[in-house]
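#onboarding

Welcome to the new folks! Below is a worked example of what a typical request in this channel looks like: someone posts a single protein sequence, and someone else replies with the predicted structure as tokens. Don't worry about understanding the tokens yet, we'll cover that in week two.

Example request:
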Amino acid sequence: MSAFADRPWLSSYAPGVPADIPEVDETLVEMLDGAVRRHRKAVALEFFGETTTYAELGEAIERVAGGLRRLGVDRGDRVAIVLPNCPQHVIAFYAVLRLGAIVVEHNPLYTERELRHQFEDHGAAVAIVWDKVVPTVLDLPSDLGVARVVSVDLTRAMPLRTRIALRLPIAKARSSRAALTTGVLASGAVDWSDVADARPIRRSHAGPEVDDVAVLQYTSGTTGRPKGAILTHRNLRANAAQGEAWVPGLERGREVVYAVLPMFHAYGLTLCATFAMSMGARLVLFPRFDPALVLQAMRSAPATFLPAVPPIYERLAAAAAERRVSLGSIRFAISGAMSLPVATVETWERATGGLLIEGYGMTETSPVAIGNPLGPSRRPGAVGVPFPSTELRVVDPDEPTVDRGPGEEGELLLRGPQVFQGYWNRPEETRETLLDDGWLRTGDLVRVDADGFVTIVDRRKELIITGGFNVAPSEVEEALVAHPDVAEAAVVGLPSRSGGETVAAAVVLAPGAELDVEAIREHGRSRLAAYKVPRRIVAVDDLPRSLIGKVLRREVREALLASDGESQGA
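Example response:
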């Protein structure tokens, strides 16, 4: 039996937080329908000042569902969404679910090579795509079966005055417009307006069931190349409910949530697209994080709840101080995806007067499983305690049936209604990660004290977390060795001052080659999203290996850290 079976952390919960959430009995579609009924006249979405009420959101979802149905989307089909944060993203997300189909989220900054791998895996026939990325998707091999590409111009969701300003014949306007849209419909694509103006789906059209798959969220998981985590309506609705329970001071229909986290990431998807909607909140959408845009929005619709990552809190607090903009409306902030420095907490709470806590999770937990209590029992430096209805175990990493006790280091196992159903088309990796009795092997090494507070010690897996995103070393290595000057490569994560990691590479050069860091980086950018490209590249004579020839990334990391220390000492 687990040493933590009696859930000692319950005594540390903030007042009003329940030990368990009610069993989930509604889909995300039913959740959104309920929010529309309760908050019809309230603002659901805001984008550069343009607002959409819950009633208007509900109607838009029904129309887009009808348009997608006309394109052939049916129950169980996968529909790819390749969009930054915008109203069309939220509408498309719920319209796909309304049909009983499956959303597949994609980073719109991915290269053709990265997108191709994912499309090969999930086989979506319809893709809803930012117009700037449409040519990349249209160029995917025809045998992938992408029959229809719906092109989305983000600027059409902006206020008329903003759209007019973007068309002014001045350099700044042209630059801003070019960053947001191509302004043309690519040949072979379907215009979003044709889908959005369709006849609404019939109310009699059967929707999804609570245990149907809702989302395939690609992640590097605990090892290897990105794979699709299978998340059901129950998983995602449960995690939204757990989030609601964790913050008992939230007021339904009155909160203002800022979506600075991308919704193609599991963290942004749950905290913004599902949690915020379940609360009847006003969701203010930003296509990318820009402190100036956020502070501008704070003047007209001040945020009350801000999910983000440590660098965002640091940059926003500094920008607000410089421009003398108050952040005092933000009562609650939850940080995730990377470790949260205590100094960041102190700076943020001085700036806002609110609370900033750290949470822990992974795509496979929809994604949040652990959080610091929103109250005096929180412990900076620890990631917190399990959410309601969530259990944990600490086990021997080499023998997960052997439990470890309080204060002993071991691998973290989690179980709860938010734990995923496995990896799409990956039965073997599913068996390795998801044990028969529902326990998820996280791959993270932790210590849990007698009160149930979890402290991350190390990652047994070798993923790199940079800017809140997972990077699989093997994927970056594969891209680097495709350069003619690189014979071998080992990619690791080095500590960053922001609390995350920086991607670094040790490379063995081909005979006669000289190290050209910028040329290798440029090659990497042609194959990888920018955040995956190594910031540091070092040439070495050889890579450390085990007796069976496996590259020992841990030793590479230690060598790079040691060389950093030597250069600083010099």
